[in-house]
């Protein structure tokens, strides 16, 4: 197999293609759903009409001129790579970041891989007795992330394509206000963009998780909830009122000593999640909420945000 040629035609480093080839090997992939069924599936995954139209326009029909042999190879092998780790709960890169301005096949290749894995994920959930409603609520994070990426003019997707492999492998579940990532003895908390982070909503979600994981994963024994986020930065206390939802969420955690995390820039994460932009000048960012004002004022003062990790007992 000419991996160098595939990499050159995809416009990506050959090391990235070699990694996909090494991890996927000859392992089985998963078929895409029938094209006729795709609109209903996309709607169930909360994909907005504008995003759904792009996905349908780039559909990998047999003989489609949009799909070169190397794109078809990458779709098949990246799907196999993710499927091979079904049940895994670690961070997984499904393949190289593609030049997404080359058309819908390039822009949404990992969406097609996700769609191919939906039935695989639902089957994994079914084998663990998980209700279909939880399955589809969890998997519908696809639509939410595509909408965020559209708001960010494509700046959000490189992170999201790896993030969504957690859903496709059964490594993450959305239960009420929070998402939970399986670990060894720890359930990692994630906070989707889905409404106010009220103490009542958080506690109801935690109660769901306390019942859900022993029921559906009885061989796994979790003792701790953990979270790694800029939301746990104690510097936020300098700006936000003590009764704010973020402060009250933060107060649940015992913070671990601060260490600069490898590969994470907290300033970038704040811009990504608070403003959904990485390129807008600080002077042009909105200041409608206390959190927006805090984010801007802190950075304009020359200070930096911290990505902190904390935990509390289940």
Structural topology:
Elements: H1 3-10, H2 14-24, H3 38-44, H4 49-57, H5 69-83, H6 104-107, H7 109-127, H8 132-139, H9 141-151, H10 157-163, H11 165-168, E1 172-175, E2 178-181, E3 186-190, H12 199-216, E4 224-229, H13 245-250, E5 254-255, H14 266-275, H15 290-300, E6 308-313
Parallel strand pairs: 3-4
Antiparallel strand pairs: 1-2, 2-3, 4-6, 5-6
Helix pairs in contact: 1-2, 2-5, 5-7, 7-8, 14-15
Task: Describe this structure as you would to a colleague.
The protein has helices at 3-10, 14-24, 38-44, 49-57, 69-83, 104-107, 109-127, 132-139, 141-151, 157-163, 165-168, 199-216, 245-250, 266-275, 290-300, and strands spanning 172-175, 178-181, 186-190, 224-229, 254-255, 308-313. The mean pLDDT is 95. A six-stranded mixed sheet has the order 1-2-3-4-6-5. It is globular, with a radius of gyration of 20 Å. A hairpin with a 2-residue loop joins β1 and β2 (178-181). α1 (3-10) crosses α2 and α5 runs parallel beside α7. The chain has two domains: 1-170, no CATH class; 177-314, 3-Layer(aba) Sandwich (Aminopeptidase). The chain has 314 residues and is of the alpha+beta class.
